Amino acid sequence: MQRGGVTNRERRSRERGAVLVHVAVTLVGLVSFSALTVDYGVLWTSRRQAQNSADAGALAGAIALAFDNPTDKSVTGPASRNAFAATQANLVFGAAPSVTPATDITFNTCPDGTDTCVQVRVYRTSARGSALPSFFAQLIGITSQDIQAYAEAEVVY
Length: 157
Fold this sequence. Notes:
The chain has 157 residues and is an alpha+beta fold.
């Protein structure tokens, strides 16, 4: 049967490619949504793990400062060593976070004026060679994700 000079077979033949275009556009949308949900989920899960690592490090440093040696705030002192060990025991996305004891574990003056605060920073960044991977976002050129966390604990006597 012809309609407007075109047979049904010819019309179906021309419309066959339209489905392919719709599937391709939908597939791009689904991959983009997957990149957002999976990679963003990895980022936030790892961010929480990094915060746990920083919290554990600050608490371990403060406990060592209170009970082991309250005056030894050196890099090799018990407070710094315990803080570092606690950060390394709490993994971030399956790997220990990057922590440099000399710069990332510090003993500063607390807001109340005492000098018994322990600050700890943990990193998973590309600058430190430990960035988080991205999975689907690699398709658009994003190969890694950076996170960091900070915690502070105070010894109160």
